[in-house]
Amino acid sequence: MQLSSMLQLGLTGLLAACLPLSMVWMSSDPNKYRKLVWVTVFLTFDLIVFGAFTRLTDSGLGCPDWPGCYGAANPFLAHAEIVAAETLMPTGPVTVVKAWIEMIHRYLAMGIGVLIMALMATAWRQWRKTRRAEYAPALPTMLFVFVLVQGAFGAWTVTLKLQPVIVTIHLLLGMGLLSMLVWLGARQNRASALAHGRFTAPAAAAPAAAPATLGRLALAAAVVLAVQIALGGWVSTNYATLACTDFPLCNGKLVPEMDFEHGFHLWRELGKTAAGHYLPFSALTAIHWVHRNFAFVVLAVLGLAAWRARTHPGVARHARGIGIVLAVQAATGIATVYLNFPLTIAVLHNAGAALLVLMVTMLNYKIKYPSGPVLQASHHQ
């Protein structure tokens, strides 16, 4: 890719970040840093949902190179190459529409990268000036490193031709990035509330501390959710969504014929076994069946966590939200099978997973750091 095209691409990423940065700068909110954190959370959630749309519309190779499109900064400049590829394979991975979907996804990712750099720079500057806990720079710096790793996996997603393990890790990193940003946002909310005296005094706050069992249950919910997202990503990246066409049975059987060895061999090409043969249908069935049945574990653990947290001060609202989203997730998962994989419902199912990540992260933060004593500068949450 030529230097001029790289510069144009970088400028596009900066432009993608200009609108949210301008909104934050011109807002009436006196805490611009906190505002920027939550704007970045919102856009990261959108990026995950749009990433699901990119994957589900088979647009991941809409531009078969990286970071540009046929060496150009945008599909307009690569129009001739894209049209030529589409003419050869009208239903193939490269079409004009798919190229734009893929590049919009990349532009949004670059914009979020710029926002995270702004968060890190602001945190370091304010930390040096004030030493206030809400500006502790460790987490924003981790976010910057994390987004660099995520960008690398985005590149490998294309260069390794949608290899399932790479695409699944790319999804998990996206969810991890969202969780870290939400944790940072929760920290800013708490610091703001403390500064404005909206929390109870330390002596009164002590009885409100969550029991240890609830903390462990919330952590277990986060772990179980991460496993299920990995399994869901493995289903999606292996195109195993319709390997079972009925529910609650799978192809008419409680335990259908399954090939776990090939289905869960991680390092292999898309649609192939490790030996290079076509992946048998029984392997796809195993992938789908495991994700479907682990969903019952998710429902049990997250449901129990939400039930236990429903009466605890400070987290009852999040507990109710988790319960509602769990129910919607179960409905969209079943509907995806019964309605033969409609795109809208599949995207909603992915959005629900991201929303659960957001809510479970908030639940864990508020249990770990309940309303109470003023934060000390040495606490780097």
Automatic annotation (TrEMBL):
It is a multi-pass membrane protein. The keyword Cell membrane applies. GO terms for cellular component: membrane. InterPro entries: COX15/CtaA_fam, COX15/CtaA_HemeA_synthase. The keyword Metal-binding applies. One of its GO terms (molecular function) is oxidoreductase activity. It is found in: Membrane. Keywords: Cell membrane, Disulfide bond, Heme biosynthesis, Iron, Membrane, Metal-binding, Oxidoreductase, Transmembrane, Transmembrane helix. The chain crosses the membrane at residues 6-24, 36-56, 104-124, 136-156, 162-184, 217-235, 289-307, 319-339, 345-365. Pathway: Porphyrin-containing compound metabolism. One of its GO terms (biological process) is heme A biosynthetic process. Its main location: membrane. This is Heme A synthase. It comes from Massilia atriviolacea.
